[in-house]
Each structure stands twice: as C-alpha cells, then as structure tokens.
Amino acid sequence: MNLHQTSPEFRAGGTDLSERRRSGISRGEIVDLTPTDTMTGVEWGHDGAARIGGLVSIETLASDARVRTASVGLAAAAAGLATPQIRSVGTLGGNLAQRSRCWYFRNPHLACLKKGDPVCPARAGNHLYGVAFDLGPCVAPHPSTLAAALLAYDATVTTNERSDLTLEHCSAMVPTGPRTTS
Amino acid sequence: MNSNIAALARLIYPAEAKELIDYDVVSNLPPGAPFRGPGGPVVCFALEQAVDEAALKLSVDPIDLRRRWDRNIQRRRLYDWASGLAVWRTRHASGAEHGRYRRGVGVAAGYWPYFWQPGCEVELAVRDGRLVASTSTQDIGNGARTVLANTVASAFGLEPHEIEALVGDSSLPEGSGAGGSRTTATLVPAALAAAHQLKDEIRRRSNRPLGDSPDWRAVLAGIPNLSMKAERPADRAPAPGINSAFDAGGMMGTIFKWILRRFAQFAHLEAGAGTPSAVQIAEVEVDMLLGRVRVLRFHSGLAVGRLAAPQLAHSQAEGSIIQGVGYTLYEGRQIDQASGQILTTGLEDYRIPGIADTPDMDIHFDESGFEHVPGGAVGLGEVATVPVAAAIANAVHNATGSRVTKFRYARTVCWRR
C-alpha cells in the first residue's frame, strides 16, 4: 500500500468509489460533499450558456428539457452512460474527476504510476484500450464520456480555487499526490 | 487442458468424412472454455463455417447441403423449419451488399449429447395435505424447482404453486449434478416414478376404491403424512432411427460413452438415445466504418423433447442466444503477458451483452423425438448456445463477403477491405 491509496478522497455519487473501496485501491478517509444550491442546480445565463453544478446527476443532464434543446450532444452522451441506477446517483463532477479505468490501476496486485509505483507495466503490457497519442507518462485515456461532449462545446470548469479552467487543465490535475514523470 | 474439440466434431454428421486433430496449448494461464457447452461453440464456429464455405463453392443452399448428409431425424425437422422462414428464403447472395451498413443472414446447426445421471432419486411426500418433492440437486439457473413442481402438479392434476419443491441440501435424496444439461432429463423421470409409487401407496392404504382419476386435492387433504422415494428409471427402447450422438461417432463414440459411464467419479453420466439439436439463423448488420457487428434478429430452432417448464425453457433458450452473442462479439479474458495476471476479473471490465446488444429473438421448439424418455423432456441449456457464434459468423460473411476466423475480431473483416 502506498500514499496514493491512503490519501483522503471526496465522495459525490460514490458509484466508482465503492468499487475501489471493495478492491482495496482506495483506503483513505472519505470526505462527503455538502451540497449547495450552486452545486446541485443548472443556471442559465443571458447568453444561453448553462452553469451546471458538480453534483448535478447524470440523469438530470440526460432528461433536462433545456439541456436537451441547447446541448443535445451533452444530453445524448449522458443518456448513453452506464445504467439507469448509476445515472441517477452519478454526478457530473464525479464523472469528470473519475479515476483511471486502466486494468493495471484497478488490479491491486499490479503496479501503476497512479498508485505511486515507479513503473507502468501497461506501457509494454496489455494496453488494448490505451491512448492513441502518447502525450504523458500514463498510457490510459481519461475515461469520461461527458468530458468528450463538454470539450466539443468548449466548456470550462470553475472550482473553489480557480475559475474558467479548461478540461485540459482539469484532467492534468486529477491524479492526486505527487506527479510522476518518466 | 484436455480439449474435447475433435471428439465433439466427430459426433455431428457422418464420422467417416472427417479427419480431426486437436491439441492443448500449455501456458502459464488458467484453462478456459465457454461456460455453456464447453468446446461446443468452438467446434461449431469452425465446422459450420466450413460447411457454409463448401455450400458457397458448390453454389448450393447451405441448408440443402446439410440435408444431403445429415441423417439425424431431429435436425432434419429443424432444417425444414429453418428453410421455410421468410428471412432465409429472401436472403441475398454473399457480399451483395455495399455501403457502410451491410446486412446478412447466416445459418448454423449444432447438437449436445443427451445425458442423464443414473442413481438419482426424488422423494415425494404428503405433509399436512401438501405434496413436497425433494432432491439434493442444486439450482444454478436450470429451473430444477419449477421442473419438479410442474411435473408433480401435472401428475396429480394440481397447480404448480401447490407443490413444495426442495433442492440444494445434501441431506435430501441424491440428486443430479447441475451440469451437462442433465438436470431436467434426470429429475422428470424420477419425479414421475415417485408420483406413480405415491399414488399406488395411497390407493393401497385407502379403505375405499379411488377410481381411475380421483380428485387428488381432496384425497391428499384427508390422508396422514407419508412419503415415497423413486430412482430415475432407465429409458424405454427408442423409436427406429433415434440414436445417441455417440453411436453416430463410430468406434470412438462407443469408447467415449463407455468411459463416461464407467468412471463415475468423473462424470456419472449415461448418454441416452436421441440428440438434442439446434438449427439457428442470425440476421446481422455490420458497420464497415467502425467494424461493429449488431445482431438484429435471431431465430433458434430447438429439438429438446417435451418442455417440462415451457416459460423457463423459453427463457433458457433466449439466455443461450444472449450468452452466445457475448461469446462471439464481446467476451474476452485479457491478461498481462509478462505476469499471467488476469486483467478482466469483474463485470466492470469483462464485457457481456447488455439489453441494447440483445437481438429480437424467435424461438421454435420441436417437441418430438424423446418419447422413450419418461416425460419426454431432455436438457436444453447447452445445445441452445452451441451454434450461435457460427450462425453470426456465417451472417457476417453473407453481409460482407469476408470470413471471421477469430472470436471478437469481426471488426478485422472491415479493416481488411
């Protein structure tokens, strides 16, 4: 076990977190998020842009009449995700900040840079669903379907600390703890 | 390890025409095989595509080609059903489709031996006016409880919900294993024999004649508790032309059948007469750009005797198609080559079909051919999935003009072109 598996984590819908608790990949303290109106609502600006709270459920994105009209691609991506149960508890924030789906990250017996290990066996190993463009130490693509749709709409992300982050900034920030370089 | 591929290929169609060889690949991995009908889907995938290819070369309808050599009575009736389907009669020539989305229709046939387990017993008891049927068989989805309840209920003219069926406890009378499609074929004759004995015993104890068809509900309500236990009886002599799949396999089939019976600790199986058979037609659509194969509709013709539980049989037949679609297009054990670690260890990573991958399904049961089995019912869980992969592969060829020679690699037929 290493620092990455014992560091605290935020819990939103908890759909993937519960899986990682069971497998032992996540063992740190859990911090539940206290919902605020901004986090759970969709606000529409005068320019027609939506400000979607991080705790808005994927089901809401899929079924909200205004989202379906204004950002049909986002609504379609949300509707196609996972299963109805997962969509009803899974959140936009959790979907964007979800951890890697790489088999080596998920298997407690295998090493992974994102678990703090010094090597990435996926690079030379089985990377059937690995990245097409090798741009960093990790060879697993970001797994968020919603991120792809939001990228297409040039969406930005606002956090408590900073505003107007592009999704590119966010995906670079997702691995917690010290960054590892090759 | 211990591949049964060549042996299974020997037992369908006349044995003499085939030169067969198989071998095990020994590696650092755990062994693997299709969960239903181990070896069967693999055999069909190779053999039935070879038959399809031969039909194309000879410019013969693939069903007509099978009719030329296949003497199996059950499959011949299924060929008649399949060749009468509109989708088969109106299919286009292989590779006639153009453009991004191409549709095709394919056929495949298959079988699974009819097994039952000697020595198994069913106990039938009257407890406080209710009938309780029990056997130690475990139910892993084969519907053992419903099969028992239906069989006993129809013997006594009662409703299935009036029968209590107990399984899954080793203190109960010895039941069959839940494998080899043997459960129904073992339980129904034993339950019928127990019902017969219980009726005789009730008549013997009764102080007045009960007549030919008494109201058993009233009779049972008025008698003290008692129970009878019956062993699965042997089958009657089959009708002419109904043989075991093993008998059709020449000398090797005879030896295989003897080994199964002799070494009871491995199998404890009796191979009976008659061959549970399947003839199936798949309709697919191939996306030539993304290499994606969708199974649109699936027609499954099954000769598995009388249905001991019709609703469950229907569900079992549909589940077999869905599992076959998964085996053909999605399932795959991924490993780390260096360590031998399995990477797809849960349903998170091991892709099986979801509801959107499930085709429209049309199930046809041919219920004759097993009249020599008491109750007339045999198992169907395995035979119903055996030809699915081959039918899909032949349909992909009909759609694209290309052969799929590996599971899950249908997309390569698109990339090659």
Short description:
The complex is a heterodimer of chains A (182) and B (417). By secondary structure, chain A is mostly helical. Chain A is 39% helix and 9% strand.
Provide tags for this entry.
heterodimer, A: 182 residues, mainly alpha, Uridine Diphospho-n-acetylenolpyruvylglucosamine Reductase, domain 3, two-stranded antiparallel ribbon, 6 strands, B: 417 residues, alpha+beta, Aldehyde Oxidoreductase, domain 4, 2 domains, four-stranded mixed beta sheet, 12 helices, elongated
What is the percentage of strand-forming residues of chain B?
15-25%
Mind summarizing the main beta sheet of chain B? Answer: 4 strands, mixed
- The CATH architecture of one domain in chain A comes to 2-Layer Sandwich
Number of helices of chain A: 12
Tell me the series of helices and strands of chain B, N- to C-terminal: HHHHHEEEEHEHHEHEEEHEHH
As a whole number of angstroms, the C-alpha radius of gyration of chain A is 17 Å
CATH class placement of one domain in chain A: Alpha Beta
Kindly, what is the distance between the CA atoms of the first and last residues of chain A, rounded to a whole number of angstroms?
A: 21 Å
**Alpha-beta content class of chain A:** mainly alpha
How many H/I helices of chain B?
12
SSE order of chain A in H/E notation? Answer: HEHEHEEHHHHHHHHEEH
Lateral arrangement of strands in the main beta sheet of chain B:
1-8-9-10
What is the CATH C level class of the largest domain in chain B, in words?
A: Alpha Beta
Distance between the termini of chain B: 36 Å
Widest sheet, order of strands of chain A: 1-2
**In total, how many beta strands of chain A?**
6
Radius of gyration of chain B: 23 Å
